[in-house]
From TrEMBL:
Residues 194-292 form the HTH araC/xylS-type domain. The keyword DNA-binding applies. InterPro entries: AraC-bd, Homeodomain-like_sf, HTH-like, HTH_AraC, HTH_AraC-typ_CS, Tscrpt_reg_AraC-type_HTH. Gene3D superfamilies: Homeodomain-like (1.10.10.60). SMART domains: HTH_ARAC. This is AraC family transcriptional regulator. It comes from the Bacteria. One of its GO terms (molecular function) is sequence-specific DNA binding. The lineage of its organism: Bacteria, Bacillati, Bacillota, Bacilli, Bacillales.
Amino acid sequence: MMDLIWKINIERPLAYFKSGQFVSAEDWKHKEMLLSKDFELIIGLQQSIYIQVGNLQYEIQPGDVLLIPPGVRYFGYYPSQKGASFFWLHFFPRVEAVTYSKEKLINHLMASEINTHKAAINNSIFLPDFFRVTFTDKPFILMKQILDIANASYYSTFAVDYLVTELLIELTEQYQKQLLQSTTNPSENSQKFAQIVEWIRVNIYEDLCVKEVADTFSFNPDHLTRLFKKNIGMSTIKYINTLKLKKAKELLCTTNKSIKEISYELNFKDEKYFMKLFKNYEGITPSQFRDAYTHTYINTISVDPDIPIPSHLSHSS
């Protein structure tokens, strides 16, 4: 399965089944399960979760995505620490999922006449069993929206179905970009820039400034900013602030930390500055952002509460 990925048709929206945000107790291990027709998607939030799927063992860390297909037994092979957490989501494809060649997908993505191959990939999502998302803000927010809508008794079940489909499209988008990047040979300049961006990501919880980043990589601050504008269309400080605010949104969505605690954790100079910056960038306050997603199911006992499969999804394909 290493060179095969899942191809799931989305010409009709994927069917939502159940979901939650799990927070583990001390020495918790995932119970043994076998899915009948649904897939389970797990996205790591805090610390590590250890799950074996068939004969393969995975350590799921924050930002890791595990897609578990039906018909394969899976279970926790090692206990997690208290507070380890992840999003979990069960969904049904409307059309039977099939495996697809990773090489074939790469060829479609890299083809010079990509539009001639668009029909082959435009109507499906493509995901491996396991990969790490590069940018977690959109998947985390979409999962939070799914939890909110699923527990808000919307008149139409399609509301959450479309959100699930949007989440899988976002994950596919990030996975495809990773595939393309892995097949190209970056220039020395692009490699250097990638190192700078990665260094900022790793140190995003620190009190970063443009001069510190420039000095670390022996750049002139103005030259560094020109480099950022050329590569990603924004200044160095805007990129730093954007990344910090992405982390802030993740913390607002996935923790109960106060605005002041989040501001302190991300090394903003004070709580008021953080709130002002958030409002300038996002158009709403941190509290308004958090209050938008109130209907969230968080479980600490069982990752998979017993919910009967809806009758319209339980029949044979």
